[in-house]
Write a structure and sequence with these properties.
Layout: E1 2-6, E2 14-15, E3 18-19, H1 21-37, E4 42-45, H2 57-72, E5 76-80, H3 87-92, H4 94-99, E6 102-105, H5 111-115, E7 116-120, E8 127-133, H6 144-149, H7 152-170, E9 179-185, E10 187-188, E11 207-208, E12 219-223, E13 229-231, E14 237-239, E15 256-263, E16 266-275, E17 282-287, H8 289-295, E18 303-308, H9 316-323, E19 327-332, H10 356-366, H11 372-389
Helix pairs in contact: 1-2, 10-11
Length: 390
C-alpha cells in the first residue's frame, strides 16, 4: 500500500508582516495533486496544520478545503495536532470531520477512543493500523512541583517515559498481518532543527530517543522539525519537513512531501520525495547599497533578508527597500555594526552640562549616525515637548 506523509503546513503564517496564504494555497494544491497522481491509500498529516492556535477564518477555510480535497482523491485522511495547533478545537470538530471520512486527533487518546485507527488499503486490500500521538506538552509529563524538585535530566526522563508509555498503549494492537504505522509530533534525539521551530518546545526536555518507537512499526511519520531527515532506529523514522520555507532560517531546506510504500512483513520504503515548488524562495543577500542595486534584477520575486555592508545612517532601510521591494528584513552586517558601549559615564567628564541636542549629537557621533535631518527633527520635537510643558 502507499501513503503520503506531510506535516508542518503552518497555514496562516505571516513573515515580517507579509501573509503567506496564497503561497500556502498553491502548495497545498500541489499536495492534493501528488496524492491524486500517486493514487495513495492514505494521507498522514503529522501536526502543525496551522501557524496559530487561534487561526483566522481564511486559514481555517484553506485547511478544511484541503482536507476535503485530499479525501476526494479516495485516500484515508488522518491528521494530528501539533504544538502550534489548538487540540481542543481539533477534538471539537472531530465528529463533524469524521462524517466526511477525515480523522483528526487533538489531544492524546487511548487506542479504543480513537488514538489508533484501522482501515483497509483500497489498492491492495491490506489491513492498516495507524497509532496517532499529537504533540504532548511537558506540563502533562512533569507536574509543577516536580519542576522545582527534579533536575532537568529527571524531568526529561519523565517526559521520555510518558511518551514511551503512550506509544506502548497505542501500538498494543499492532498485528503481524497488518501494516503498522505511527504518526507523532515531537522531537527525536539527533534530529536537526529546520530553523523555524519554537525553540522552547524543541529543547532537550521535550526530546525522546528513536528507540522509543516500537520495532514492529513499518514506518514512523513525524512532524515538528521542518527539515527533511531520517533517523537511525529499529524501524524507519522520518521527518518530511515543511512544504514551504517558513522563515529565513529555513531558506536552504528542500520543500517536499514523501510518498511511502509499505507491505505486511517488510519495513516501509520511501518511494518518492516529491518537491513542492509553490512557496516563494527566501534568500539572504549581502552587499553595499550600490552592490545590491547592481544585483537587484537577479533576485526575482524572492523574499529577501538583506545584510548591508555599510555603517548605519538615517534612511538606509528606506533606501534599500526602495531598491528591493521584497526586502522583508534589513540589517547592518555584523562587521559594520556600531559597537555598543555598555558602561557610560553618568556625569560629564569635563564638568560641563550639555543640552539635549548636544547629548544627541555626541551619541550620533559615537554610533556613526550623524545626519542633520535627525538632529533637525529632534529640535522640532524637543521644542514641541518643552512648549507643551510651559
Amino acid at each position: 500500500m502507499k501513503f503520503l506523509h506531510t506535516s508542518d503546513w503552518h497555514v496562516g503564517k505571516v513573515l515580517k508582516g507579509h501573509s503567506r496564504l496564497d503561497e500556502q494555497r498553491a502548495a497545498l494544491g500541489e499536495i492534493v495533486q501528488v496524492a491524486r497522481n500517486h493514487e495513495v491509500d492514505a494521507v498522514i498529516i503529522a501536526g502543525d496544520l496551522y501557524e496559530s492556535s487561534a487561526p483566522t477564518a481564511d486559514a481555517q477555510q484553506l485547511v478544511v478545503q484541503t482536507l476535503l480535497a485530499l479525501k476526494r482523491t479516495g485516500a484515508e485522511v488522518l491528521a494530528i495536532a501539533g504544538n502550534h495547533d489548538h487540540p481542543p478545537t481539533f477534538d471539537a470538530y472531530r465528529q463533524l470531520m469524521a462524517c466526511a471520512g477525515i480523522t483528526m486527533v487533538g489531544n492524546a487518546r487511548t487506542a479504543a477512543d480513537g488514538g489508533s485507527v484501522d482501515f483497509t488499503a483500497r489498492s491492495t486490500g491490506e489491513p492498516v493500523t495507524v497509532a496517532m500521538l499529537p504533540f504532548l506538552s511537558q506540563r502533562y509529563a512533569v507536574r509543577a512541583a516536580d519542576l522545582v524538585t527534579k533536575t532537568p535530566a529527571e524531568s526529561s526522563a519523565a517526559y521520555d517515559q510518558l511518551v514511551r508509555d503512550l506509544l506502548s498503549a497505542l501500538t498494543a494492537g499492532f498485528r503481524d498481518d497488518a501494516v503498522n504505522l505511527v504518526t507523532a509530533h515531537l522531537t527525536v534525539v539527533g534530529g536537526k532543527f529546520g530553523g523555524g521551530e519554537r525553540t522552547v518546545q524543541s529543547i532537550f526536555e521535550y526530546w525522546v530517543p528513536a528507540n522509543a518507537f516500537p520495532p514492529d512499526a513499518h514506518y514512523i511519520a513525524l512532524g515538528h522539525l521542518h527539515r527533511r531527515q531520517s533517523l537511525p532506529a529499529p524501524c524507519p523514522v522520518h521527518y518530511c519537513g515543511s512544504p514551504i520555507a517558513l522563515d529565513f532560517g529555513e531558506q536552504d531546506n528542500p520543500s517536499m512531501v514523501l510518498v511511502v510504500e509499505a507491505k505486511v512483513g517488510m519495513p516501509a520504503r520511501i518511494a518518492a520525495e516529491v518537491p513542492i515548488s509553490s512557496g516563494r524562495r527566501l534568500r539572504t543577500v549581502c552587499g553595499t547599497v550600490d552592490e545590491l542595486a547592481q544585483r537587484a534584477g537577479a533576485f526575482g520575486d524572492d523574499y529577501l533578508r538583506v545584510l548591508v555592508r555599510e555603517a548605519t545612517r538615517a534612511g538606509l532601510r528606506e533606501d534599500v527597500q526602495k531598491l528591493l521591494p521584497n526586502a522583508l528584513e534589513v540589517r547592518i552586517a555584523p562587521e559594520f555594526a556600531a559597537p555598543v558601549n555598555i558602561a557610560r559615564p553618568s556625569t560629564p567628564v569635563d564638568g560641563v552640562e550639555r543640552s539635549p541636542l548636544e547629548l544627541l549629537h555626541e551619541y550620533c557621533v559615537d554610533r556613526k549616525l550623524v545626519d542633520e535631518r535627525v538632529e533637525a527633527l529632534f529640535v522640532r520635537l524637543h521644542d514641541q515637548v518643552t512648549a507643551g510643558d510651559g
